[in-house]
């Protein structure tokens, strides 16, 4: 299982437009083979922060999606952030 998760910042006045511009792509990703979840959302505390989370069955599924993802045009300069890919060998309930 693969998780891609993190955050990045954009100009606060552009943040909601950036999130909205990804809605169509998120919808397509959620229907893609091997996708278990995908979200790009506005942070509730930082007005310039965009949170992202992707959950894939495998590296192959992620790579297949990346080949056809066709992300939206960049609306705002990315000012910083931290997004990491994690390879998960075991999962279970949180408690």
From TrEMBL:
Supply the Gene3D superfamilies for this chain.
3.30.70.100
- Which molecular-function annotation in GO is an example for this chain? monooxygenase activity
- Per UniProt, which keywords does this protein have? Monooxygenase, Oxidoreductase
| Pfam families noted in UniProt | ABM
Source organism, top-level taxon? Bacteria
Q: Which PROSITE patterns does the annotation name?
A: ABM
Q: Does the keyword DNA-binding apply?
A: no
- Domain named ABM: which ranges? 2-91
What protein name applies here?
A: Antibiotic biosynthesis monooxygenase family protein
Q: Which organism is the protein's source? A: Micromonospora mangrovi
